[in-house]
Amino acid sequence: FTQGLPQIAGVAEIVAGDSALGPHQFRVLAYGELLEFTGGIKFGTAKELEGFLNAMPEVKTVRLDSIGGRIREAQKMSDLIKARGLSTLVEKQCLSACTIVFLGGRDRIIQSDARLGFHQPSYRGISAAERSRTIAIEEERLQNFGLSRAFAERAKLPVRTPLSLKS
Q1: What is the rounded CA–CA span in Å between residue 41 and residue 26?
Q2: Cα–Cα distance measured from residue 160 to residue 14, given in angstroms and rounded to the nearest whole number
Q3: Torsion of CA 144, 70, 95, 86, to 10 degrees
Q4: In the chain, which end has fewer C-beta atoms inside a 10 angstrom radius, N or C?
Q5: pLDDT band at 96, cuts 50/70/90?
């Protein structure tokens, strides 16, 4: 009851469209060299990104402005960006799962007043063991992106306390 029912409610939320994450949008800018992503990262977003990238071989940079969303989807987006050697850019904010996307960039650019916020993974009905396993996977992933082990360990703060690269 303490894990199963919340997980069922979480799946129902996903199936209903993840309305809490809000809408998202891709925009093509700078004559096709810049692809902007704004909004929540929902299931299917990586497939949309792949479609844009396949149709636009001239893209060099992906600009992000997102509160985050689904971790697995963000990992797929990050892998697409990394595989194509694209840069990532944050001018406003990139929080939660969006940071995973950001780290896929060959060159990672953050404007001086932008916010990049990390925190530990969280979802309905997660057990302590599952949380620990997910955190360990994310710490390893952060280190594989070239961040220090110390930073990766600090990035597992509670969900309500984002960690900024400026910290």
Answers
A1: 11
A2: 21
A3: 50
A4: N
A5: confident
What whole-number distance in Å separates Cα of residue 119 and Cα of residue 101?
Answer: 14
* Contact yes or no for 121/131 (Cβ under 8 A): yes
Q: How much is the mean pLDDT over the chain?
A: 81
The beta-strand segments (E) located in 7-161 are: 24-29, 34-41, 61-69, 87-95, 108-110, 115-118
Q: List the one residue out of 122, 156, 126 whose CA is nearest residue 139.
A: 156
Whole-angstrom distance, CA of residue 103 vs CA of residue 147: 9
Confidence of residue 121 (pLDDT cuts 50, 70, 90): low
Of residues 163 and 154, the one with the higher pLDDT is 154
